[in-house]
Amino acid sequence: MTTIPSPAGTRLLRLRNLTVLVPVRAAVGCTLLAALLVVAAAAALSVGTASVGPLRSLAALVGVGDAADVLVVQRLRLPRLQAGLLVGTALGVSGCLMQTLARNRLATPGTVGIDDGATAFAVASVVGVSTSLLPSGMALVGAATAAALALALAGGAGTSGYRFVVVGLGVGAVLGAVTNLLLVRAPIDAANAAFPWAVGSLNARPALPVTLLGVGLAGCLPLAVLVGHRLTALRFPDTVAAGLGVRVRAVRLAALALAVVCAGPAVAVGGPLGLVALVAPEAARRVCGPRGVPVLSSGLAGAVLVLLADTAGRTVAAPVEVPVGLVTSIVGGPYLVWLLLSSRPRRLP
Predict the structure, then answer these.
(1) Closest CA relative to residue 45, chosen from 81, 19, 82
(2) What residue ranges are annotated as transmembrane (predicted)?
């Protein structure tokens, strides 16, 4: 039997009749990010005003140990951990798809208006229309509306990366103004109820939107990984990608749809967490290398970033809590400035 050598930096894994080509650096990078995520999750359960040691928090997680520890871990910190894990993963995946789709590292759900659209419609569901409309459902509608507007005005997804970004910024600015108008004109109680969706917070998130986000992410993540493999070919000109057998238009529409479905419910749960979708894919590329589209590692990096930011927001200025959206903006803002002031435009490799 002739042994076919694997390309440099990869390994062939054979399982019966199935052969899988695994990039070594990407596999190691995903493993490291997964380990870092475990550490961030342990810190989220252990660190806070009421300090609970790692072993005690692990015992409290399964309902064993001191009653106060069980209350703090299961009732207060575990729901935040679940929300942060899902929101960070969804935003990281969405950002990776958007950046690759537009061939531009600035193209994220925040910079092309998807976050603003989801926020505007979620706030409207609280302060402007019947309360029977769930903010998560309205956020998905708002995200799809913003994406459709940016796509139509830019002349097609991925046809011009910077044009797509600039048009998205304009759409986001308009929708952001709508959000501010709704909050200003709303009664004080309604404005207070909608405020977490406008600033970004994981505190006391309703269980139903978190569950819906988890179900949606479970369905979208495998599809996003598959679409990510196809997006690798779109780094070439469209004619070359089509020659390789890629249905260019269908792949772009699928990537955009998955980015919207991930970002909309994530914003409905955690609000517009500033620049997570910008930083997470870049961190994934640094760890896993430029080969391929790092959809899974971007999700892991996004979850790590959100959990660490939420833990820092709860503890740094305790007993005052800094919303996680402000913390992620502080972290991502300098990176965005550096990206804009780079000597030349940076495109995806």
Answers:
(1) 81
(2) 20-45, 137-157, 164-188, 208-227, 253-280, 292-310, 322-341
Domains and CATH numbers, the chain: 10-69+83-340 (1.10.3470.10)
Decide if 275 contacts 328 (C-beta within 8 A).
Answer: yes
Q: What CA–CA distance (Å, rounded) separates 216 from 63?
A: 28
Q: Tens of pLDDT along 295-324?
A: 999 999 999 999 999 999 989 887 888 889
298-337 residues labelled b (16+ CB within 10 A) or e (exposed): bbbbbbbbbbbbbbbbbbeeeeeebbbbbbbbebbeeebe
- For residue 319, whether the previous peptide bond is cis, meaning omega lies within 30 degrees of 0, is yes
Residue pair 321/265 in contact (Cβ under 8 Å)? The answer is: no
With 0-12 / 13-18 / 19 or more C-beta atoms within 10 angstroms meaning exposed / middle / buried, residue 193 is middle
